[in-house]
Amino acid sequence: MELRTASSPKDEKYYDTKRLRDEFVVEKIFFEDEIKLVYSHIDRIIFGGAMPVSKTLRLEAGAELRAKYFCERIRCGHCAYESSCPF
Ligand SMILES: [Zn+2]
Predict the structure, then answer these.
(1) Of 46, 55, 54, which is closest to residue 78 (Cα–Cα)?
(2) d(CA 24, CA 59)
(3) Which of 6, 37, 67, 75 is positioned for an S-S bond with 1, CB 3.0–4.6 A?
């Protein structure tokens, strides 16, 4: 999971294009047989993509969430609409 921390608006105005893109753009989220997640402290969201091609992928909390499973302390899109969550 990629972690993106918040930055100060006072600092951002001095960023060049590369730095702005590095901080705020995610160019690609789908990779074969991977789950790519970006945890942004700016909006306190985790977004990403999963592309299972030749194997089953498992969504895990990772060290960043400090949780036993992905949806222990957060709500995913599935949680928002269903009473139970597979994650
Ligand atoms: Zn969930």
Answers:
(1) 46
(2) 24
(3) 37
In a domain, 65, yes or no: yes
How many domains would you assign to the chain?
Answer: 1
Within 8 A by CB and 6+ apart from 11, the residues are: none
Q: Model confidence over 11-34: pLDDT tens digits?
A: 999 999 999 999 999 999 999 999
Distance from residue 73's CA to the centre of ligand 1 (Å):
9
The structure's pTM equals: 0.77
Distance (Å) from CA 47 to ligand 1 centroid: 13
- For residue 86, being part of any structural domain is answered with no
Ligand 1 mean position to 79 CA, how many Å? 4
pLDDT above 90 covers what percent of the chain? 53
